[in-house]
Amino acid sequence: MTEIETPSIRVLLCDDHVVVRAGLLALLDSAPGIEVVGEAGSGEEAVALAEKLRPDVVLMDLQLGAGIDGVEATRQIAPTGVHVLVLTTYDTDADITRAIGAGATGYLLKAERPEELFSAIHAAAQGRTTLSPPVASIVMARMRSPQPTLTERELEILGQLAQGLGNRDIARALFISEATVKTHLGRIYDKLGVDTRAGAVSVAKEQRLLG
Amino acid sequence: MTEIETPSIRVLLCDDHVVVRAGLLALLDSAPGIEVVGEAGSGEEAVALAEKLRPDVVLMDLQLGAGIDGVEATRQIAPTGVHVLVLTTYDTDADITRAIGAGATGYLLKAERPEELFSAIHAAAQGRTTLSPPVASIVMARMRSPQPTLTERELEILGQLAQGLGNRDIARALFISEATVKTHLGRIYDKLGVDTRAGAVSVAKEQRLLG
DNA sequence: CCCTGCGTCAACCGATCGGTTGACGCAGGT
DNA sequence: ACCTGCGTCAACCGATCGGTTGACGCAGGG
To answer: What average pLDDT values come out for chain B (211 residues) when binned by 10 residues?
Structure first.
């Protein structure tokens, strides 16, 4: 028994919460066929370690406190051929879309059962996709009725809006005319299904479209 | 060695994320002198199990998805003499204040080192308070300059505001005059340090004053 | 008993917003 | 070459907002 028959899947953890990381480490170490080869507390660290350790799977949280977020880290890691499995709390449309767009292999919620996590890690190691049921539903729903996506510019406007700025101030901040701001706002209202600025900010914060 | 010299501290976990719970379980079981006697996935469950199991410490997350939140659960558990140690992601003013007000014995962030968690659990078991450094800072700051607290009524107004309602609609919804709404809004602006409704919603969402 | 905080209401004003219509240039894709 | 999406701008209107001042009743604490 000096030979390992099935080599363990080498996993890199990325989560800014030390306690959660430690917990996952303890949890995964108890699972057969999975070996945690590294931990990262930030997106930058994850990118560096992914390159250095070349794990089979990176278990990635999206919310990473300061620095680049999980989506950006995924965007940098995925092209190197390392599979990224997103494990996060949020099941909002915007997060899922961005993560998939960034090249995530799978998307699991922390509310998922541990066995699901284990099998998702196995799946991800082979490049197969696993989605938590609620996430899958959202993806399906979006396929059916492609939900409006805010453009870059509109997000900028929204950002200023959330600062409580008036149209004139927004116009000055972005070097455009007040009329343009109003045009954008109108489209934003349409896409978000609201008709006031306060409502727009509210929805934006809920959908996590803003920081 | 049939006798246990120092009986283990009996801990009840409460977190709506199964993976996190499993992780914490694995982590705490590896710690000497700590024994996890139960797990709850909701506030209601935590209240019931706390009464039934009478643990030494309840490790409580604040965000619990559906049902009552961690603060409410704490409010119900604390009076029974069971110590509640809050372990959460958020270090916002409002959360800390509410948790302490509800009777939490300590307040730790998930970003804390596991050793801190262990010692905080020991401390909590004896009724001693442990605060994460950032949390302690916030508490101190608040002592120095008692930050404006929104009244019940103002929070109601704020809630309507976040729905994107106009003053007239808010007035109707709360059975008061439009003038009163404006008066409240003026005070809300003052307290939140903004001067527009969009700004107020933004700050409110950031401070987690609203759902 | 007085004072403070809270919630309520009124009337006024200028500034701003929300909605509309119509238009132009530019890029990317077919 | 065409079309679509995006970003830009203009002018207009009524409705709404933000700010102000002043006022009342009621509860709780000193």
So the answer is: 69 94 91 93 95 96 91 91 93 84 89 91 92 84 68 91 93 93 93 92 88 73
Cβ within 8 Å, pair A162-B202: yes
- Angstroms from A194 CA to nearest CA on chain B: 7
CA of A161 to C1' of C16 (A): 14
Answer CATH for A9-144 from 2.115.10.20, 2.40.30.10, 3.40.50.2300, 3.90.550.10: 3.40.50.2300
Q: What is the pLDDT of residues A35-47, one digit of tens each?
A: 999 999 999 999 9
Residue B152: which nucleotide is closest by CA–C1'?
C6
B177 within 8 A of B165, measured Cβ to Cβ: no
Where in chain B are the domains? 9-144, 152-206
Specify whether the CB–CB gap between B157 and B165 falls below 8 A: no
Q: How far is the CA of A35 from the C1' of D20 (A)?
A: 67
What is the C-alpha radius of gyration for chain B, rounded to an integer number of angstroms?
Answer: 20
Residue A126's pLDDT band, with cuts at 50, 70 and 90, is very high
Work out whether strand B57-60 and strand B83-88 pair parallel, antiparallel, or are unpaired: parallel
